[in-house]
Specification:
heterodimer, A: 261 residues, mainly alpha, elongated, B: 264 residues, alpha+beta, Sulfite Oxidase, Chain A, domain 2, five-stranded mixed sheet, five-stranded antiparallel sheet, 7 helices, globular
């Protein structure tokens, strides 16, 4: 049952006409293009990694990676062989970069960056969100377009994307752009940063996909056709925790006083 | 066996047969929706499989080729003789940990009993010549501590001594139509051709010593190409021939499907 306390009284029964989609078409298109590009970049990257699954220079050791010499399972890779994976990696990188530039450019030109800008209180809000998910707090914290956990995730993902591209350029052209490679501590370390950026991106993407299905499946529609009823479907309106309250809040079901209807 | 086109035709024909059979079954009421879906999935799977070669769908091949060609343009634009690799600072010289490989079944070794080793330098040059080891060593040599970048992703630092290609070019005088250089070996015909800009980079050399010791057979004795500006596989070992050419000539790994440019 939906907890009546979950629905802010002022929202109950008020129908707002939504003329604007939750996400601008540019955001929707770049979202799916980067999903495709990232999957292929990660898969082909892991196939390249498997050709030499270690980070140390020959004759040296590293302390930060305990699985030196262990390849990743084949089913996580793409491109079939080292040469094929390299062709995919070095072709798809252009799509990833172009798409990323369009997205980041849009964020700034359209003012959308305001919904992601880290502000004071984000950490506190993130802790509140986590408390809510852990049932340590009954009511969904008030939020803007995204909750604080989402905001932090998306900002870190953008930063990791930028890091993946710059470290990638550094290991693509370690002599022609040697200054960039040296900035990252040399080729072997740059390769590690590149791997780390992928790892964080992959983990956050995984968490993101899980949370979409577990908390806000309505986001799939918002990210494809654009439709989204903020007052009924948003996790805040539904007071939704992972795997809980997946149905939109129905004003009829709520115990809101007659006068509000 | 059969050409890809023929394979595709066969798959298409098979699909038509499956489709007709399914249609008949459905018309006779023997087929439930569930079976139809299952059959459909199987048919779709066969089409997808046949459209894929080892590294992805066929339609992607052209796109990947275009990307490779354009990447080469970008890489050649970024390339400069002033970009010098100093070998990662604070890194250990790999020494005997430096991996070695060859494509013959056993370590290729020059048979000195049959004939003395010589290095033939020819093609589009004014002064073609054939150098023996003593003559190669008399070319003003260079000793450099550099990174070796393998296509697989590992690197190793090595100290190499040899005759810079720029010195050799000064002696043999390439003609103006020499745009590429082919480095040929006695390792089962292994060779790789380079763009002349990379071949004449100040750090590209015909190396005969590693860490001040003459190259051992595992590392490409008696002489090999080495440069930090190209990935390992472009650096022909067991060198016998340097040919200046107006056109590129592929290479052992390039022909297998790795990028021809292979620059760093």
């Amino acid at each position: 049952m939906t907890s009546p306390a979950a629905i802010p009284a002022e929202n109950v029964g008020i129908k707002t006409k939504h003329t604007k989609a939750r996400h601008h078409p540019v955001v929707r298109i770049t979202h799916w293009v980067s999903a495709l590009a990232l999957v292929i970049m990660a898969g082909s990257g892991l196939r390249i990694f498997n050709a030499s699954p270690a980070f140390a220079r020959k004759g040296e050791h590293v302390w930060f990676w305990p699985w030196e010499g262990t390849p990743v399972p084949d089913y996580l890779t793409f491109g079939a062989w080292l040469g094929g994976a390299r062709h995919w990696h070095f072709a798809m990188m252009w799509l990833l970069v172009a798409n990323g530039l369009v997205y980041i450019g849009f964020l700034f030109l359209h003012g959308e960056w305001r919904t992601l800008r880290p502000v004071r209180g984000d950490i506190r809000d993130a802790i509140e969100m986590a408390k809510f998910y852990l049932h340590l707090r009954p009511v969904h914290p008030h939020q803007g377009k995204h909750n604080a956990l989402q905001k932090i995730t998306y900002v870190v993902m953008i930063l990791c994307g930028i890091m993946a591209v710059t470290t990638g350029i550094a290991i693509w052209k370690p002599v022609s752009l040697g200054w960039l490679t040296n900035l990252m501590g040399g080729y072997a370390l740059a390769r590690w940063w590149h791997f780390l950026a992928m790892l964080i991106l992959a983990l956050l993407t995984f968490a993101h996909v899980i949370m979409v299905f577990a908390v806000d499946p309505y986001a799939i529609r918002a990210m494809t056709t654009g439709g989204y009823d903020e007052d009924r479907s948003s996790p805040e309106a539904r007071n939704a925790r992972p795997f809980e309250h997946l149905l939109p809040a129905h004003p009829e079901q709520s115990a809101a006083p007659e006068s509000v209807k | 066996m059969s050409s890809p086109e023929k394979q595709l035709r066969m798959v298409k024909r098979a699909d038509i047969v499956v489709e007709k059979a399914v249609e008949q079954l459905r018309a006779s009421g023997q087929l439930e929706r569930r079976d139809f879906l299952r059959l459909g999935t199987a048919a779709l799977g066969s089409v997808l499989l046949s459209a894929c070669n080892s590294q992805g769908p066929k339609w992607a091949d052209r796109w990947l080729k275009t990307a490779e060609k354009n990447n080469e343009k970008v890489e050649r634009w970024l390339f400069s003789h002033t970009h010098i690799n100093k070998g990662s600072p604070n890194a250990y010289v790999a020494g005997s940990k430096f991996p070695s490989y060859f494509i013959s079944d056993t370590v290729p070794m020059w048979d000195y009993a049959k004939s003395p080793w010589t290095l033939e330098i020819g093609g589009a040059v004014k002064n073609p010549m054939r150098l023996n080891m003593t003559e190669l060593m008399s070319v003003r040599s260079k000793r450099q501590r550099v990174d070796h970048f393998c296509v697989e992703g590992w690197t190793a630092v090595a100290i190499l001594t040899g005759a810079p290609m720029s010195e050799i070019a000064r002696i043999v005088q390439p003609t103006s139509d020499a745009q590429y250089v082919d480095f040929v070996s006695f390792d089962k015909g292994y060779h790789e051709s380079w763009d002349i800009e990379s071949a004449l980079h100040p750090q590209t050399m015909i190396a005969y010593a590693k860490e001040d010791v003459l190259l051992s057979p595992a590392y490409g004795a008696p002489a090999r190409v080495h440069s930090p500006v190209k990935l390992g596989y472009k650096n022909t070992k067991y060198l016998t021939q340097i040919m200046f050419m107006p056109k590129r000539n592929g290479g052992y790994w390039s022909d297998i499907g790795y990028e021809w440019y292979g620059g760093t």
